[in-house]
């Protein structure tokens, strides 16, 4: 197989076993498929230790559908929501709130700065009308990790509710719902769990979800309705993404066999270290300081050289078997390289070599290997 390796934060490179899990058709009424859904949901809750307090509601669609569904279902109309903001996925939450008619209060940070829990504390103390905080855990637009345990602590101490977009961290970065007060965690099939895209899920506090009946603006996005129906029938309300669920089941089997969250984090950390040290040897600089970088996706400054152009760089690296990701910053010319997916340090090393040869060909660097 000569498919290029995806160094992108979803869709990403999946294992052969995960792809093969999609070679069967499943009936949505069939007990075997319902069992598959139930086992996936149960394992997803276990990954974040939420079994005592939380339930898992899967939803058809990409991750954003699940974020919108969680906000629409769990945040009452006319609520005021604080959004600590350091990137494009925080901005997406602001847009969702606007679309759904919930007031957003933006607490701005630089794109290279993690959100500061002390400033959240201050903002909440200053405005008692804010009922919720909506926080992105790993801001995938840069790769920065926001300090979730400290944020959860501060929000709970102020007596407010917390909703977390954990899309690009779930499964790799530790999250422990036994010690972290969180109303809802949102993630999806096609990121650190290494499934294929097509299913989002919300791990919601049972009590909070129970009290959300009739609150959603939308029929299809109503997580309470989806949950109740699934509790009653074991089935999805509308046509389930059967192959996506089967692939996710297989991907979670491999996740567990590999050693769960700790092993996944260790592999991604090694991927990240291999990538960053190789790229630095080529003279490329990371946008973020190492201390705030999550080992999920790395933003690099574009080489400051007239011969560099992302489109041509991308095309040539792709010919060598690797798909890169454009930058998402307005302030600096950058590109991104993902560390997640069914890949290891050997693939990252080969990616660095492909990038080195390409930059040499373009005339951006003078030696095709690290100095
Ligand atoms: C991937 C991602 C999403 C969801 O994006 P989709 O394009 O809808 O899959 C949301 N938040 C974060 C932080 C993400 O990384």
State the CATH topology of the largest domain.
Aspartate Aminotransferase, domain 2
The span between the termini is 33 Å
Decide which structural class fits the backbone.
alpha/beta
Task: List the ions, cofactors and other small molecules found in this model.
Answer: pyridoxal-5'-phosphate
CATH superfamily membership of the largest domain: Type I PLP-dependent aspartate aminotransferase-like (Major domain)
CATH class group of the largest domain: Alpha Beta
Q: Unreliable segments (pLDDT under 50, ≥5 consecutive)? A: none
How confident is the prediction overall: mean pLDDT?
A: 96
SSE succession: EHHEHEHEHEEEHEEEHHHHEHEEEH
- Order of strands, main sheet, comes to 2-10-9-8-5-3-4
Number of structural units classed as domains: 2
What characterizes the major β-sheet? 7 strands, mixed
In short:
The protein has 371 residues and is an alpha/beta fold. It folds into 2 domains: 5-9 and 261-362, Alpha-Beta Complex (Aspartate Aminotransferase, domain 1); 16-257, Type I PLP-dependent aspartate aminotransferase-like (Major domain) (Aspartate Aminotransferase, domain 2, 3-Layer(aba) Sandwich). Helix content is 40%, strand content 17%.
């Amino acid at each position: 197989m000569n498919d290029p390796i995806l160094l992108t934060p979803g869709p990403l490179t999946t294992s052969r076993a995960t792809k093969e899990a999609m070679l069967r058709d499943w009936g949505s009424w069939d007990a075997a498929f319902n069992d598959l859904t139930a086992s996936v949901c149960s394992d997803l809750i276990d990954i974040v230790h939420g079994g005592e307090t939380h339930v898992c509601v899967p939803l058809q669609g990409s991750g954003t559908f699940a974020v919108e569904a969680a906000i629409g279902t769990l945040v009452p109309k006319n609520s005021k929501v604080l959004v600590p903001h350091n990137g494009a996925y925080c901005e997406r939450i602001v847009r969702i709130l606007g679309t759904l008619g919930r007031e957003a209060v933006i607490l701005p940070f630089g794109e290279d700065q993690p959100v500061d829990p002390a400033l959240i504390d201050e903002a909440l103390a200053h405005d008692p009308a804010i009922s919720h905080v909506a926080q992105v855990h790993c801001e995938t637009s840069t790769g920065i990790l926001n300090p979730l345990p400290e944020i959860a602590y501060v929000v709970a101490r102020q007596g407010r509710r917390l909703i977390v977009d954990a899309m690009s961290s779930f499964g790799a970065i530790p999250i422990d719902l036994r010690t972290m007060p969180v109303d809802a965690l949102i993630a999806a099939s096609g990121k650190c769990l290494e499934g294929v895209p097509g299913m989002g899920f919300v791990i919601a506090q049972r009590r909070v979800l129970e009290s959300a009946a009739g609150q959603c603006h939308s029929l299809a996005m109503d997580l309470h309705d989806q949950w109740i129906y699934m509790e009653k029938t074991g089935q999805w309300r509308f046509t389930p993404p059967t192959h996506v669920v089967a692939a996710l089941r297989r991907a979670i089997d491999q996740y567990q066999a590999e050693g769960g969250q700790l092993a996944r984090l260790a592999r991604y950390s090694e991927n990240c270290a291999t990538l960053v040290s190789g790229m630095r040897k080529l003279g490329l600089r990371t946008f973020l300081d190492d201390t705030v970088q999550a080992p999920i996706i790395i933003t690099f400054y574009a080489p400051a050289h007239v011969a560099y152009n992302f489109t041509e760089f991308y095309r040539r690296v792709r010919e060598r078997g690797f798909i890169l990701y454009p930058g998402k910053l307005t302030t600096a010319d950058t590109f991104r390289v993902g560390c997640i997916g069914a890949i290891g340090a050997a693939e990252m090393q080969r990616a660095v070599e492909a990038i080195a040869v390409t930059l040499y060909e373009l005339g951006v660097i003078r030696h095709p290997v690290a100095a």
